[in-house]
């Protein structure tokens, strides 16, 4: 859910333009990489959640213990990696937002703050997934 919120905030109002121009730019200090990073990890996290949800549904039908072990290890490693990537994303978005000038933000400030906030919340949700596991 957090990944969808970050993704939708950045896609919906993460790009803006000046009143005198039709060229879009990222609201985070005009840094396109900040918006791309947030959108990228949001989409990939959502797809990974769907995949691991499907694995959890079919997990009781998997009789091979080796396959089960590899699936659990993959879930654990992915959750650890994604915890780190959300932490990097939170730091990156926060840093770029702190350098953003107020005159450049006409619309989308609330969406930018929401993307930063839910990036922070995502860190804890992925840590809990890595700690608890399947």
TrEMBL record:
The keyword Transmembrane applies. PROSITE patterns: MARVEL. It comes from the Eukaryota. InterPro entries: Marvel, Synaptogyrin. The chain crosses the membrane at residues 38-59, 71-95. Pfam families: MARVEL. It is found in: Membrane. Keywords: Membrane, Transmembrane, Transmembrane helix. This is SNG2 protein. Belongs to the synaptogyrin family. The keyword Transmembrane helix applies. The lineage of its organism: Eukaryota, Metazoa, Chordata, Craniata, Vertebrata. It is a multi-pass membrane protein.
